[in-house]
Amino acid sequence: MRRSARLTLWFLLPVLLLAGLLFALQRWVTSEGFRDRLAAEASELLGAPVRAQAIGLALWPVPGVAVDGLSIQARTPLSLQRVELRPRWSALLAGQLRVQTLVVRQAVLPEATIALLGARVGAAQASPAGAADEGTDDAIDFSLLPRELVLDEVSWLAAHGARTTVNADLRFSEDGWPAKAELAIVGGALRGTTATLRREGEATAWALDARVGGGRVRGPIEVKLPEPGAKERRVVLDGSLRTEGVEVSALTAPSKPLTGRLQAETTLGARFPERVSADALVNALRSDTRFTVTGATLHGLDLLRAVSTVGLSSGGLTQLDTLAGQVATRGKAIQLSNLVASSGLLAATGDVAISPSRALSGRVRVDVTRGATAGVVGVPLAVGGTLDDPQVTLTRAALLGAAIGTAVMPGVGTGAGANLGDRLSEGLKDLFGEKR
Q1: CA–CA distance, 6 with 3 (Å, rounded to integer)
Q2: Of the candidates 59, 65, 61, the residue with the CA atom closest to the CA atom of residue 38
Q3: How far apart are CA 177 and CA 283, in angstroms?
Q4: Staple partner for 239: which of 268, 292, 334, 391, CB 3.0–4.6 Å?
């Protein structure tokens, strides 16, 4: 009997100790003083008021700390309905704080606020001289990062106002690099998109597989770290992606300037410092793509009407049998070149640039066959407007040439005159180094 009671006591003792520890921890983290002190320290670090409605323990699936109603008061407030932090208990019992899992639920993360807070934290952590001493290893301590990051309805609010909501599960290797990532976009322009990223062995290389717009984007991505002792501490990113059967309008939603199925081959790369902000990383990214679109329809622009009116044209649509070309991105800027499009009597070539503000600029030449004996009329057009509202006009020189052509030979001479005027303008520009 005594032996049975002793065994029962030995089994109950660890349970009672754990319960007592959790009770004491609960009292400590839920106290108003602890919450206020934590908010004050975070506010000082970020340079913006930090508020938390409640701090407590999350017991499932493993014990951890939960913060409810967390907000950072900036010009565009950042809010997180709930944040759960689950430590690695083996490390915690050894006196080290290591995060096993970080869960973020129903958060709104404005791009402008994230950039501002990141700059403030970076300035606060910088040395007095403004840079690390030569020979100092300032690499990130990956042991401080979580081994798993879970995002539950987390929304990214872009600087231009677009909102994208995602669910994601990221698992990290011991060296801090992602081992596996799964992402689903549940709100915003790319809603319905899913993607997986899997690490290939121990290398800093991954295989991307994304489903978007009824098609697929996949290929390898590799990161090359600077060699130990290298003078230039730059990280190099390289990738090669293949796009198959993706509906173009799914990539530009809610805008719909072009519809059709996209086939493309893309190479991408970037060179950036070991420590870099998200905005600087976007600006460092470069990509080059060769593409074709089958069943293409250009919305918001009727090229045949633009040729016939020889002037400002917007609205309508152009159905194309073929559309091909190249796309180069440099940060947020986009350049379309070697465009080739054809449909029945119409054929077009040209180059168009898209600015980060979605403004269009460029030139296209539209050739229209006027029957079996009338030959081909080519009209040069300047592209303007925005991605949502494209417009084409004749250049000033082409407009003058069109007017002269119409006067000399009404109807037939309009396009020819526009073409001649545009070529004359280009010739004068090359001769005198300026536009006419």
Answers
A1: 5
A2: 65
A3: 22
A4: 268
Distance CA 266, CA 258 (A): 19
Q: Is 407 exposed, middle or buried (0-12, 13-18, 19+ CB in 10 A)?
A: exposed
- Long-range contacts of 118-125, Cβ-Cβ distance < 8 Å, separation of 24 or more: 118/277, 118/278, 119/277, 120/45, 120/46, 120/47, 120/48, 121/45, 121/46, 122/275, 122/277, 124/45
d(CA 342, CA 230): 52
Peptide bond into 128 cis (omega under 30): no
Query: Where do we find the tokens 């300037």?
Result: 257
Handedness of CA 208, 209, 211, 217 (dihedral sign): positive
What does 201-213 look like in DSSP terms, one character per residue?
A: TTSSEEEEEEEET
- Output DSSP code: residue 313: B
As to burial, measured by CB atoms within 10 angstroms (0-12 exposed, 13-18 middle, 19+ buried), residue 386 is middle
Asked whether the beta carbons of 208 and 219 are under 8 A apart, the reply is yes
Which residue in 398, 315, 384 sits closest to 352, CA to CA?
Answer: 384
Q: Are 308 and 245 in contact (CB under 8 A)?
A: no
* Calpha distance 374→331 (Å, rounded): 46
Q: How far apart are CA 205 and CA 200, in angstroms?
A: 6
38 alpha carbon, distance to own chain's centre = 33
According to DSSP, residue 370 is labeled -
> What percent of the chain is predicted at pLDDT more than 90?
29
pLDDT computed for residue 150 by the predictor: 95
Angle at 278 between CA 117 and CA 82, to 5 degrees: 55
Chain centre to alpha carbon of residue 373: 51
Cα angle 176-178-180, degrees, rounded to a multiple of 5: 145
Confidence label for 217 from pLDDT (cuts 50, 70 and 90): very high
- 116 membership: H or E segment, kind and range: helix 111-125
Q: What is the DSSP string of 390-406?
A: EEEE--HHHHHHHHHHH
pLDDT, tens digit (0-9, with 9 covering 90-100), for 280-316: 888 899 999 999 999 999 888 787 777 766 555 567 8
Collect all residues with Cβ–Cβ distance below 8 Å to 114 and sequence separation of at least 6. Answer: 78, 278
Q: How far apart are CA 340 and CA 346, in angstroms?
A: 11
The strand pairing partners of 282, in sequence order, are none
Query: Residue 113: helix, strand or coil by DSSP?
Result: helix
Q: Which amino acid makes up residue 167?
A: N
- Alpha-carbon span 390 to 396, nearest angstrom: 19
> Closest Cα partner for 210 from 251, 268, 149, 152?
251
Distance of alpha carbon 194 from alpha carbon 214, whole angstroms: 11
